[in-house]
Amino acid sequence: MANVIVIVLCLIFSILPAAIANPRTELVYKFCGVEQADNVSEFNQNYANAIVAMEPEIKSNKFSIYGEGLAPNRIFVLAQCMDDLSKEDCQICFSAIKTQLPGCFPHISGRVFFDGCFMRFENYSFFYESSSPHDVKRCSDAVNLKNDQFRDVATKVVKDVVTMAPVHGGYAEGRRKTYGLSVYGMAICWNTLDEKACSDCLSNASTAVLDCLPSIEARSLSVGCYFRYSEFESSNGSNFFNSKGAIFMYLVFILVAVGVCIIAILVGYIVGTTLHEKRVKHQTKHNGDSSDLESSVMKRSLHFKYSTLEKSTDNFSEERKIGQGGFGEVFKKDPKKKKELDWKKRLKIVEGTAEGLEYLHNDCQVRIIHRDIKPSNILLDSKYRPKIADFGLARVNIREKGSAPLVIAGTFGYMAPEYLAQGQLTDKVDVYSFGVLILEIVSGREFNKIPANDTLDTIVTIAWKHFKEKRAYRIIDPIMEIEDVNEVVRVVQIALLCTQESPIMRPDMSTIIKLLTQENLEVPVPSKPPFIDDSFYGSEQHGSIHQHHPSASSVDSCRYYDTHQDNGSFHHYRHHPSASIDSCYDTESVLG
């Protein structure tokens, strides 16, 4: 019992810091320049290289600057977290913000403000700039009804913080409570500015935010500093254990958890003892009936006669075989190809698989990289809920050794290029495979079984070419009845983010889940996938996965279409407790 209590307490102490953490990844402001790079591909690669080089310093110092490449495609990048963020929260904020800036490409400048961190890139060294014509302020629509009193308190807080920050390493926060009002202020200068430049930047910022009064919240977003005042404190600086109320709630939580554990152990002990006594009492009586019991269980578990299975699969014909699992070959039975997987169900499968991968990558005690994400390894229950299966190739505890060479294993077509070529194994290998899986689910096609003029084309290259021509809807499975084509195209764009050639450009699974479930988030523009020639972008000679598609040249011009075909591309077995998503693919008929 003592061991169980210790385990529960360890779980509580491991869960609470995660609950207290707040990386503040809300997007506050994003700006992209006008001028474009001479060589977009080289500029993008320089950005990716810079991000890789900056990550160790961000991890240790919560700040980094870096220059990469040669003019005119040289890039300079600055990233910094707010001082009150922990190193762990800073890494989360940086992981999220670095995927936002590529949305500015092919432009040669951009900056993004999150509530917890800042990032900027240019094609020149800007590190010591303290102001810019593009500096902005943000005022909330809500105002404090005690106008004069609130204005007086807020002005004092702003002046206090502006005075303290330059002489305290470029960061300060403060609070005033009076007249029954409470106002919080926070100011930070980027680490490249000296004391005078920081003071000048914050002076301009304070003037800007004071113009927002009596708004209850305002921000100044400058190239050299960040300033905010608000009725509500957003800082992570206050330690969780500094509050007596928080300590009390924490202790109550522990005591309740321990009490529940003790009760559960007592109930379990009583029930277990009772069952054990009954089992011992009747052991002799039922000893001779074990063979009959096994026979009964086997009969209840078998839903079909062997002759029925043999007939329904054409005597287990190779043409009916759809895959090879750990327990043997898998055959498909339904020859009518009923249209059971509509878009809502497919999206549910995509989101469920993403949540499963995010759990493997981040929520397990050790990080698990599956290495073989593909349709045949995604099992569906009777409610179309996906489960990731077949962990025979999985690797664990790959956190700091992502570049260590490993024996290559997986399925061709789903393996990321850096893993296939160099054996570099990170969680971005699973992200790449997941992107291919999304495209297969959207199109109803296996990655290499598509009609195309170029025999080297795959579902990834075809999807990319159509996306570049703003015709991504052409890969959508025509058997689906779509109410909102833009929603499906958004998912296709997320898939292309996952299949980008550079692993650093691919989002992690946490970001992917946010993009899939939060429609208000902007999906960054993906860079090209591997194994594709830029010269194809303008070509009309590449294949289309399906010929049934809207005639308009833009997704925005079509909201609904329906092909009403009799033969579907997906199948599902309601009687099989773990049917593979691979069994839903039509690998024989050619739609269109």
From TrEMBL:
Pfam families assigned: Pkinase, Stress-antifung
Domain Gnk2-homologous: 25-126, 131-234
Keywords: ATP-binding, Glycoprotein, Kinase, Membrane, Nucleotide-binding, Receptor, Repeat, Serine/threonine-protein kinase, Signal, Transferase, Transmembrane, Transmembrane helix
The Protein kinase domain, residue ranges: 229-521
Entry keyword ATP-binding: yes
Residues that span the membrane, as ranges: 247-271
Compartment(s): Membrane
Principal subcellular localization: membrane
CDD domains according to UniProt: Gnk2-like
GO terms assigned for molecular function: ATP binding; protein serine/threonine kinase activity
Keyword Transferase: yes
GO cellular component, one term: membrane
Membrane topology annotation: Single-pass membrane protein
SUPFAM superfamilies: Protein kinase-like (PK-like)
Signal peptide start and end residues: 1-21
The protein, known as: Cysteine-rich receptor-like protein kinase 43
Species name: Solanum verrucosum
